[in-house]
Amino acid sequence: MPTYRVNYQHIGSNDEMTLEIPTDSASASKQQLEDAIAKRLADRILPHAELAIRHDDGRNVAEKLEKAYDLIITDYQRV
């Protein structure tokens, strides 16, 4: 699985985490990759976020996490 370094803000605090992303998501479209990164980050720091992620409101995963939990992915890069 490819590894990504993800920089994010959560409730105004900046942090960084290294995440492994499934190969099929990493080789898919940019939006699918960003959704996979956002979901994996939420799994690690917000285990209760599954309801917000599954809620069907036309937004991508990163937008849902920003609205529901003030979690903003500021940057990511493959390492």
UniProtKB/TrEMBL annotation:
Name used for this protein in its record: Uncharacterized protein
Superkingdom classification of source: Bacteria
Source taxonomy: Bacteria, Pseudomonadati, Pseudomonadota, Gammaproteobacteria, Alteromonadales
